[in-house]
User: Fold this.
Amino acid sequence: MQKSAWKRLSVSVTAVALLAGVAACGGDKKDDKAAEGSAGPGKPAAAGKPAEAVNAAFEKTQSAKSAKFEMTMKMPGLGGEPLTLRSSGVMGWNPTVVDQRMTGLPGKDGAAAETRSVTIGTATYTDIGPEGAAKNDGKRWVKLDLAAMAKESGNDSKGLQQLLGGGQGQSQDPAQQMALLKASPNVKLVGEETVAGKRAQHYKGTLTVDEALKSNKGLEGLSEQDRQQLLGTVKQMGITQYDMDVWIDSGDLPVKLDMTMDTGKGRMEISETLTDYGTPADVQAPPADQTTDLLEKIKKMKESGGGIPSMAS
Assistant:
């Protein structure tokens, strides 16, 4: 596999990361603190201006560091058929950890199968089950480290590796999603609604792809050429903007987060509900002797003159 092929792979994975909502990597702490305090002492942030409420919820979510979640992701599937994935589990952020179970991917007989995955930092480990293990030297876990893959591609840009390194975990991280919403120039209050039995304030905002890239601190290390290539790749997929909704409870924490993107192949929708903030997120990597590193497998194929293996296989 040539360096250019690795480069195309890394840019492709970056675009997927953006699709999943990894476009925001925090904000200016000084400005966030000032916005949090502007709601006034003793006054719930959700009762203040929309931007103030979202800023305060972003700060509170960052401090919580973990939560239980349920997520539904709807996206265009192969052959034009829509695909719906559902996952639930526990996650932590700063550092990123996720332990989740997902349903919706077709199994051996076409029926929806359940898959468990564990994310620690930049690496995601997927349990391929006993049947998968039988075809994988007896190992039932597959590791994919996106940051290592970005480095192997020959692009050692700090920004690109940070973006890729977020992987699946950051796409679910509510603090990252709140950071994306607070970067929106048009956040507005929709009204008070009930979500999962809780009264919450519903806020809405939009963000163009250009604005998302500009707001992403993790992309500061990209050259202008790489930035334009990334922007072009995402736009080729038909994405022009993110539509975001968040429901914030009286404790200034998001209880639900929705994100919608229109792509060239159809609409992608992500809806996530969050409970039990601060719950322990003790996530451990599977034993090394039961794990196959996908990157190492790709390297061996590269050495033997093979191509990039399908990410779907």
In short: Residues 3-19 form the longest helix (17 residues). The two ends are 18 Å apart (CA to CA). The first strand starts at residue 66 and ends at 76. DSSP finds ten helices and twelve strands in the chain.
